[in-house]
Amino acid sequence: MAGVLSIRRDLVDAIVEHARKDHPDEACGVIAGPEGSDRPERFVPMLNAARSPTFYEFDSMDLLRLYREMDDNDEEPVVIYHSHTATEAYPSRTDIAYANEPGAHYVLVSTRDDDTHEFRSFRIVDGVVTEEEVQVTDGE
Predict the structure, then answer these.
(1) What processes in GO biological process is this protein linked to (predicted)?
(2) How confident is the model over 119-129, as a mean pLDDT?
């Protein structure tokens, strides 16, 4: 295990809820946090522009707006999340190819089972995937 993603329970719930809501399409979004803090704080659900059950793509205008917002707030994308609707929560070849934030935690949620979900976090740097521990915290 490389690192640890420490994330509040309400943010985990929000990600899972978004993933369930968009099922059978993949859901995606970002959790922004103060630059350099590694603290996910602001939940930003995004639209899957691909509207696909096997692929996600941020809308380029949405993404541009989000990055401007984060710049203004001295934030960075701490978590980049998306869901897999039929497969395990592990980055696909496409996910790995599109991963261009080496500092971010890539969170995957699998909604293939109705009653349970997988919630896993990875670092993806230069095509190398490293799973990390997820610590869920209550509140601050």
Answers:
(1) cysteine biosynthetic process; proteolysis
(2) 96
